[in-house]
Structure formats: structure tokens, C-alpha cells
Amino acid sequence: MTASNASSNGALALGSAFTYNGGTVELWMDPLGLDVKQGGEKTLHVTWQDVVGASSNGSTLHVGTCIKDSHGHRQLDTIVLEGPVSEDVGKFANAIRYIAKFHHLHKSSLPSIDDMADKAPPAQVHAVFEAANIMVTKVLTKHEAHATDIVEALDLTEYAFVVCVGGDGLVSEGNASSTRYSFLSLSWAFIADVDLDSERYRFMGSARFTMAAVIKMLSLKRWRGRLSYLVPEGETSSQPQSYWDMHGNDASSAAPITSLLPATMGGDFSEKWATIDGNFSLFWSSSVSHPSWDVHLVPGATANDGFVYLVVVEGVVSVWTMTRVLLGLETGAHAALKSVRVIKTR
């Protein structure tokens, strides 16, 4: 690979010049990402986190990107640049893939795609893998329990991972004979009522949730309850020991041990527990940042950090306050509101 220029901050210019959007540009890469420069001025910057892969076709360089839009949703796109020498362009594509950390996916993936899925058509899913230069073996399920048959006959040494595209039933089948216990989210008060009430408006599609939310806010209903949660011991920012490390069990299908709970739920809680007693407007707990594709409930949470997060709006709040909370759920902006508490627990 040839490089015409290098800077003191570790940036490296790939080749001499490319053609991009009808103009002559330079393509630079540095520890933070890729830069497209024209006349020495940066016209485009893509972080390595947003680069999904790269490929070449003769002297044409394709860089696959997946950048967040203003709503926090990632959009798949391709940067197309015409290079001077086809051999060098191929080397540039290899270098970009390597630094973007997709080079280690040397095995292929097997997406088991539900032919009834309406959220993500197979063509859209395949495009993401193609942009990331990941070899894909695509299988469409044709009948009930077909995914189970596929997984049971699968040679796992041939694949890096299996991707299921469809509903929760497909994921359940894909687990085959394995039993796993997990927790995604639990809601009560406003969110739970909206979820239940929206069923009568199912004919409206996804708009049924908006309809149910507006009606529920105007009803001025309030919820009274008692919430007790375990206060993490020691440094709350450190990752706790995983459940199965603490409660080892040879039988993987054994039900989880609930020893964290006090002996009598109606009695006094130990000093390890904190309690909120009174009116609530919203309660939503989750072990992940996104309980659904369009709700960024807990910014910064990861699936393996060992914590459960409680998002709580205490007391009786105004329609305007609840509206701001709901509008902020998509981007995570609600977490910064004074009326919202985000509690880390176990």
C-alpha cells in the first residue's frame, strides 16, 4: 500500500487523489476515522465506529457506513470514490476493513430469516452484512419449528454467529434444546396501561400506542405503590459478578435462585434495600438500553453490565411534563429531565 502523506497526529493519506461527487479529493485515515478532504479542507468525517466495511471493484473504492441520523437511528450508506490505480484501491479497502475491526470475522454467519417478518425485510438485513464484507448463508424458515431443525443440524464450528430476523417465536425456536433465563424489561403504571389499552386500537398499527398514550394522559389516572430495590454494594460503577458465577449450578436448565429477596415480602427490608412509597406516574425497568427499537430508555446501559435500571417518575405530574418524558424516550433525552430518576440496581 502506498501513502503520499503523513501527519504528526498519525493521519495517513491513502494514495494521491480520488474523485468524489465530481470533485478531486484526498482520503485520509487516522486513529479516529476516515476523512475526505478537498483543497486541504475536511468535507466528510466518518468515525471507525460508523465504518462497517470496505470493498473495491477495479479502481472504485466502496466504504460502507452506518451513521446515526438526528433521531439516533443508524442508516446504511456507501461512500463511493474513484481511485487512480486499481491495485492500490484494493489494498486501501483491506486496510480500512482491518482498522474497522471487521477483519476478525473470518467465519461466516447463518441468518435464519423468518419469512413472516415485516419489520426488517431479508434484503435489508443482507445489505448490512454485505457492506461489512461478511459472508452470509441465508435460510428462510418455512414452517413451525423449522428454526429448531436448522440449529440442531448445524455445525457450529463453521459459523461465527447465527442471526435471527423475525419475532420472538423465531428466537425461541433458535435456542433449540437449550434453556436460558433472562430479563429484558418490566413496566407498570402509565407505560403498562398504555400497552394494554392499545390492544383495542390494533387496527391503527403502530399509531395505536400514540392514541392510547394521549387518552391515558387526558384521563388523569394516578398509580400508588411501593417500590423496593436492592442498592448495589461498594462502587456502583463497577460491574458486579455474573449470576451464574455467584450461583453455580451444573444443571443449566435449573430455575434461578431468588435469594436476593427478603424472607417476607410484607415485612421490613434489610438496610441493603431502598424503598419508594407513594404516587407514581411512570415505572419502567430494563436490563438493556433499548427495550424496543424506538425507545432509548437507559443511555449508556449495556446488555452485559450486570445491572437492572429503573426509570421512575414519582408523584403526580402535569400532562406537559409527561409529554416531555414520552417525547424524550426515542433519543434518551428524558433521562436528563428533573422529573425522571434513573436508578441502578440488581
UniProtKB/TrEMBL annotation:
This is DAGKc domain-containing protein. Residues 123-173 form the DAGKc domain. Transmembrane segments: none annotated. GO terms for biological process: sphingosine biosynthetic process. One of its GO terms (molecular function) is lipid kinase activity. It comes from Aphanomyces astaci (Crayfish plague agent). GO terms for cellular component: cytoplasm; membrane. It holds the Pfam family DAGK_cat.
